[in-house]
Amino acid sequence: MDYKDMDEETREKRKREQVAYRTKKHNSVRFMILSSVFEIIETVLIMFVLFILTAVVFFKILKVDPSSNVAGTIFMVVLVVIFIGGMILGFIIYKKCARWCIKKFKMFDKLNDDVLIHYFKEEELGLEDGRLK
User: Fold this and answer.
1) Residue 37 CA from chain centroid, whole number
2) pLDDT digits 0-9 by tens, 21-70
3) Selected residue with higher pLDDT from 57 and 129
4) Binning pLDDT at 50, 70 and 90, where does residue 127 land?
């Protein structure tokens, strides 16, 4: 960027805006990486808990014989349902946790608008022309 044609005040203002933009960008990248790791761990834990609960209900409460072919087939179908349900439940909980974290730590001015729009509706953020007020 060529700053030679600008006066000192405009140059400083531009530099501050660029530093603020880069800082928001770095904060957004860090937040997305950490939240993605959290989502993966949380989803795996949810699936594991659902699997354990299903196994307990299936084999201890209903007392299904694990060696029968019908029980094996039913259990395999239930595992697929657990996987899909765990993924969906993981997405829902992840989004709620990310929204809570952004609100709790007042991160609205520290993250890019694109990241905020991912977690909140535009009406909730009070956006004007795609930018925060």
Assistant:
1) 9
2) 999 999 999 999 999 999 999 999 999 999 999 989 988 888 888 788 88
3) 57
4) low
Residue 6 DSSP label? S
In the chain, the largest separation of any two C-alpha atoms, in whole Å, equals: 83
Cα torsion 99, 28, 90, 122: sign: positive
Structure tokens at 89: 């439940």
Nearest to 42 by CA among 120, 102, 96: 96
What length does the chain have?
Answer: 133
Phi, psi torsion values for 131, nearest 5 degrees: -120, 150
Helices of type H across the chain: 8-55, 69-104, 113-119, 122-125
d(CA 42, CA 104): 20
Three-state DSSP class for residue 48: helix
Give the gyration radius of the chain's Cα atoms.
Answer: 24
The span from the CA of 15 to the CA of 17, in Å, is 5
* pTM greater than 0.85: no
Structure tokens at 48: 């594991």
